[in-house]
Amino acid sequence: MHKSALVLFSGGQDSTTCLALALSRYERVETVAFDYRQRHSVELQARVEVLAQIRRQFPAWAPKLGQDHVLDLAVLGQVSETSLTRDTAFKMESSGLPNTFVPGRNLLFLTLAAALAYRRDLEVIVTGVCETDFSGYPDCRDDSMKAMQLALSLGMDKRFLVDTPLMWIDKAQTWELARQLGGQALIDLIVEHTHTCYLGDREHRHAWGYGCGHCPACALRAAGHARYTAGLLSSR
Ligand code: ZN
C-alpha cells in the first residue's frame, strides 16, 4: 500500500488533524503551505510552531515527519477581489466567504502539491477539504477532488491518491478524530497552537483556541468544539 504522503498543511485545525492522520498512516510524511501574502503571517507562524510541537510531543511520529515546504504564491493576490476592485477592504460576502477568496485556488494548490510530490517521490496528497460544514468552496468538493486526482495522475503520468479524510465529517467529528489519533495532548496542541481565524486574531483565547470569535471560521470552530465537548460529557 501507500507509504509516503504530502500534507497540505496551513497550520489550522483541519490540516493539523490531517497531518496527525498521515503520520499515523504513512511512513514518510512531508508538509507544504502556500504563501500568498493575503494570509495573515500568524498562520504561517502557527504552522511552524505546530510542527515543532508535534516533533516534541509525539516521539512515535517525529521520525516520520520530513521536510516542510513553503511555496510562494504571491500571484494569487493579483486575482483576488480586493486587488481587482479599488478601495475594497477585507469583508465577508453574503456567501460566507471572505472577499479575498480566489476562485479555483484549491485547484492551484493541488497542482503545485502534485508537482512537489512528484519531485519528492511522495505517493499520496492529503488535504483537509470538507463538504459537510462549509461547501461554499466548489473547488473543495469531493467531485472536484476526484477530478483533480484523475487529471494530476494522467497529466504527470504518476498515480496520485488525493486523500481527503475530513470530506464527510463535521467539525465536532474532526475534534473527535484528533482525540482518537493523539489523545488529549493533540487536542491541547490544536487548541493552543493552530490558527483558524480569518482576521488573524491571536489576542482572544477561548476554550477552542485563539480568534476573534465572530468571523465564519471562528464561529465554525467554536460550534464544532462545543458539540465535541458536549458529546464527550454525555458519553461519560
Ligand atoms: Zn475569527
What are the key terms here?
single chain, 7 strands, binds zinc ion, Rossmann fold, 236 residues, two-stranded antiparallel ribbon, alpha/beta
3D architecture notes:
With 236 residues, the protein is of the alpha/beta class. It has a single domain, classed as Rossmann fold. It is 45% helix and 13% strand. It has seven helices and seven strands; from the N terminus they run βαβαβααβαβαββα. The strands form two sheets. It has a five-stranded parallel beta sheet with strand order 3-2-1-4-5, sandwiched between helices. A two-stranded antiparallel ribbon has the order 6-7. 36% of the residues are buried. The model has no long low-confidence stretch (mean pLDDT 90). Bound molecules: zinc ion (ZN). Zinc ion binds at residues 197-199, 201, 211-212, 214-215, 217-218. Zinc ion binds next to helix 7.
